[in-house]
Amino acid sequence: MDRDGIIANVTVIDGLGGATVDCFVAVEGGVIREVGAKADLPSAPRLPVEDGAGRTLMPGLIDCHVHLSLDGAPDAIHQIAGDPPAVAALRLATNAERSLAAGVTTVRDLGAKLHVDIDFRKAVVEGIWRKTPRLVLAGRPLTMTGGHCWQFGREADGPDELRKAAREQIKAGADWIKLIASGGILSPGTQPESPQLEEEEMRAAIEEAHKAGRRAAVHAHGAAGIKNALRAGIDSVEHAYFLDDEAIQMMLERDVWLVPTTWACKVIVQEGHEGGIPCHAVMKAEAALERQRESFRKAHEAGVRIAMGTDAGTPYNRHGENARELETMVELGMTPMEAICASTGRAAELLDMADRVGAIEPGREADLLLIDGDPLADISVLCEKAKIAQVYKAGVSVRASRA
Ligand SMILES: [Zn+2]
């Protein structure tokens, strides 16, 4: 298919909770025009027909938390800190291509070095680089002096500096403002449970984001940092490895999204110090893992809105292996259908793109994933490269040279 065509004889998982066997999906000009039953497909259709031969068609994956300028090195912070701008940009472009090939058609990058993410998008808009998911970008993360991610973030202290730092990201072209409300697993000398930016500091940055029609996401592990961000008016909470009941209640009351990044923590524990991951990070991940799993389960059971995000780029959390997150969410109690919705329709809602992507329904762009197998029966088929039969972005196969 090249912007126009019909994929016939497929099971459609629509990204909104529905699954229907024996369907066809018609695409025109890169947009989904019709979803119908196989029996209703005209005998001489005017568009070229591809036989899906019993495969599954679902929306492309939307990863709401990646770092394209990090590429899964065991010591990720050291890698990003040492990259000169051109290397950071090439790394980002390569990771964008890997993500797309694996079926990730939209990403939200929540923190890059300098503004290489925004510069990269300029290269994409100008047609210099094509193979990339759709990009939702945050520019540099805003962190307190010496706070988590200071090695590539914008250090700022006090409400006035936070306000200015947020304005800088918006001026550069950021779609989201990323804030750091607690220490992190990867940054040496910080503790995930310790609060970092204060409520008033975050409020100033969030106000600037909202004034400009942008939204704000927060890195927060400990309950104190999470609550500070919630009181400050945050739109999405990332990680949240140490949720308590009050924080869950506050998320529900404010209708705030959780992006749980469950695979990121698990794989650090799995690869460990033997894999070259710094000791302090392994120890923090080991200490967090059980609490993280419990936090996810509780939030999910309580009905907190969850969108998929991997934190891809962190140690052994490689771009192109994003579907590991769905596998882990299922392991922690989601049904495969819930995990798929969190990675498609729900994720599009979080990113305010639900009118364009995230579902197989007429009017949305044809960002599609054709799979050999049934992810509702076994979610891990999404992790096997050989099972990804096709990826389309706006109706164009990403394997085509002009994609
Ligand atoms: Zn992150």
Structure, described:
The protein has 403 residues and is an alpha/beta fold. The chain folds into two domains: 5-60 and 359-397, Urease, subunit C, domain 1 (Roll); 61-322, Alpha-Beta Barrel (TIM Barrel), CATH 3.20.20. It has twelve helices and 17 strands. The protein has helices spanning 76-82, 85-101, 116-125, 158-172, 199-211, 223-232, 245-254, 262-271, 279-302, 324-331, 336-342, 345-350; strands at residues 5-13, 19-28, 31-37, 49-51, 56-59, 61-66, 104-109, 134-137, 142-143, 154-155, 176-180, 215-220, 236-239, 257-259, 368-371, 388-393, 396-397. Strands 1, 2, 3, 4, 5, 15, 16 and 17 form an eight-stranded mixed β-sheet that branches. Helix 4 packs parallel to helix 5, helix 6 (223-232) runs parallel beside helix 7 (245-254) and helix 8 runs antiparallel to helix 9. The longest helix is centred in the C-terminal third of the chain and has 24 residues, at 279-302. The radius of gyration is 20 Å and the shape is globular. The model has no long low-confidence stretch (mean pLDDT 97). The structure holds zinc ion. The site of zinc ion has 5 residues, from loops. Zinc ion binds next to loops.
